[in-house]
Amino acid sequence: MNMTVLKALGIAGVAFASASPAFAQSATGDASVKILTAITVTKSSDLYFGKVLASASAATVDIAENGSRTCGTGLSCYDTATAGGFSVTGTDGETVTVAIDNPNISLSDGKGNSMDVALSTSTSTLTLAGGSGSFNIAGSLSVGANQAAGDYTGQYSVSVDYQ
Amino acid sequence: MIPPVIRRPIPIAVLGLAIAALPTGWAPLAAQQSTTAPIVEEGAQVDFGIVVPSGEAGAISITPGGAQLCSPTLTCLGGQREGLIYVTGVKDELVTILIGDALLSNGSATLHARFRPSDPYLILRPGRRKNAFGVTGTLAIEPHQPAGSYSGTYDIIVEYQ
After folding, report:
1. In this predicted structure, what is the pLDDT of residue A14?
2. For residues B106, B108, B111 and B112, what is the CA-based torsion angle, rounded to 10 degrees?
3. Whole-number pLDDT of residue B128
4. What stretches of chain A adopt beta strand conformation (E)?
5. How confident is the model at residue A3 (pLDDT cuts 50, 70, 90)?
6. Mean per-residue pLDDT for B75-91?
7. Mean pLDDT over residues A82-99, rounded?
8. Quick check: B48 and A32 CB within 8 A?
9. Are β-strands A95-100 and A158-162 bridged in parallel, bridged antiparallel, or unpaired?
10. Chain A residues in contact with B10 (beta carbon < 8 A)
11. Residues B144, B105: contact at Cβ < 8 Å?
């Protein structure tokens, strides 16, 4: 009788141990991504120092971001100056960074004469309210003593990136 | 005089009574295993981050470890995260993990995403501890994909083997 009971329990134990659950469970996970509108940067105004009458002394002509001009000692400045201006479009509410790629440039008359310009902006970041924004560029033009007359031009570039 | 050895058989009725007297809620092991499905919980959602599309199609992938791989046609700005799923079930059991594709939507436009578990198999540790696996994936971005916050859900199936 004893042996019969033990065998029965042993078989049951094997059956328990080898039983494999067959149940599966399904669930859901979440995923997300934010797609932004590509940024566009458009020049709205050139940085224009105006017309400058040089003197025997070197001096600077400064254009502030609001377009106001400070004409250095000994220089005479004419015409309406403008600050550099850029408009930016992108995703509404996003913040972008603003940088001047080459903050020190040279203007040339194409005849071997040049003047240095230091560029700056107070805008390092910009929040695109309504998907757009703008910023201005100031400049300081170094006019040499007896700077040769002529039309001086140069280029600079800016970078705008999502933060 | 040596007393006679008396062998008493174990009464079957007593054994049956002992099982019946076990605490409420206990069930034989086989019964537990066959009726307990694994518990699947989300620990962290998959986040593909922030992407700026272009005029060309591309894809963004989240790798195991949570890095963001971006097609050259896209600008990826970070913010990504690998998903995390917890499974709790019968200890030492092997489970298989299947994850389906999904469509992420911003309400008007959609994106197709494919997901992968960090491991298609998982051996459940004892003690009803949460067994974690990661979820990575690849998101296809169409040319000029409309901007917006896209979200969606994917299906996970965890099955005992």
Report:
1. 33
2. 120
3. 65
4. 24-35, 40-45, 51-53, 59-63, 69-71, 76-78, 84-89, 95-100, 104-108, 114-120, 125-127, 132-143, 158-162
5. very low
6. 93
7. 97
8. yes
9. antiparallel
10. 1-2, 5
11. no
Task: Give the whole-angstrom CA distance, residue A142 versus residue A161.
Answer: 30
Element (H, E) at A108: strand A104-108
Q: Collapse the DSSP code of A30 into the 3-class scheme (helix H, G, I; strand E, B; otherwise coil) and give the result.
A: strand
The residue in chain B having the minimum alpha-carbon distance to the alpha carbon of residue A161 is: B77
How distant is the Cα of B119 from the closest Cα of chain A, in angstroms? Answer: 16
Is the C-alpha dihedral spanning A127, A121, A43, A156 positive or negative?
A: negative
Alpha helix locations (H) across chain B? 12-20, 29-35
Q: What is the largest distance, in Å, between two alpha-carbon atoms of chain A?
A: 127
ipTM for the predicted complex? 0.75
Residues constituting chain B: 161
Determine the average pLDDT of the residues in A107-136: 97
d(CA B2, CA B135): 74
Burial A12-23 (b: 16+ CB within 10 A, else e): eeeeeeeeebee
CA distance B67 to chain A (A): 14
Interval B37-50: pLDDT, tens: 889 999 999 999 99
Query: Distance between CA A129 and CA A3 in Å, rounded?
Result: 86
Contact between A15 and B20 under an 8 Å Cβ cutoff? The reply is: no
> Would you call A50 helix, strand, or coil by DSSP?
coil
- For the entire predicted model, the pTM comes to 0.72
- Compute the distance between CA of residue A58 and CA of residue A34 in angstroms, rounded to an integer: 53
Q: Which residues of chain B does A31 touch, with a Cβ-Cβ cutoff of 8 Å?
A: 45-48, 83, 102, 104, 113, 115, 137, 151-154
Question: Please, which pLDDT band fits residue B10 given cuts at 50, 70 and 90?
Answer: very low
Chain B interface includes A24 (CB < 8 A): yes
- CA-derived radius of gyration, chain A: 35
Selection from B78, B72, B77, B48 nearest residue B58 by Cα: B72
The token duo for B83 is 């998903």
For residue A22, give the chain B residue with the closest CA: B160
pLDDT digits (tens, 9 = 90+) for A78-88: 999 999 999 99
